[in-house]
Specification:
Blueprint: H1 7-17, H2 22-29, H3 36-48, H4 54-65, H5 71-80, H6 85-110, H7 118-130, H8 135-149
Helix pairs in contact: 4-6, 5-6, 6-8, 7-8
Length: 150
């Protein structure tokens, strides 16, 4: 018998802190499992009773990240967490709805003024791209500012 908490207790401890995807939990618990079957069994039982939920994981990531990041970055994060493409696709329309508003808010907080030079414009574009906003959204943010100032 192994010393320390059981796999189920360890899983519940992780889930009590925040939502996890099945892949994340599998990676965290693998060192403590005697066999892969044991680990799969614990994760299956947690999914069956609703304690491990990919849908809740998507909701949580979207809720936390949408005020700072674009849809590309959020989609990438969900993919890295092993979330099913169908669930990601279902979350995309909601993200796209507010993406321009989010990009404007992020840009305003970081820069607040239109770029004075090509170098500054490139810096602002790189920043927004790094935050996961599409080129189309970035151009709308920067050109809308330019038009307001003219």
């Amino acid at each position: 018998m192994s010393s320390g908490p059981s796999l189920k207790i360890r899983a519940l401890d992780c889930l009590a802190r925040r939502e996890h995807s099945r892949l994340e939990l599998e990676k965290k618990l693998a060192p403590y499992a005697r066999t892969h079957d044991e680990l799969s069994s614990v994760l299956d039982s947690l999914e069956q009773i609703g304690l491990l939920s990919a849908e809740r994981m998507v909701e949580q990531v979207v809720h936390v990240r949408r005020s700072k990041f674009g849809s590309r970055r959020i989609v990438h994060e969900l993919q890295q967490k092993g979330i099913d493409e169908d669930l990601i696709a279902a979350a995309l329309p909601g993200l796209k709805e507010t993406e321009l508003k989010t990009a404007r808010a992020v840009w305003q907080k970081k820069f607040g003024t239109a770029p004075a030079s090509a170098k500054e414009r490139a810096k602002q574009i790189r920043f927004l791209m790094g935050r996961g906003f599409s080129t189309e959204i970035i151009m709308q943010v920067l050109y809308a500012w330019d038009e307001e100032c003219d």
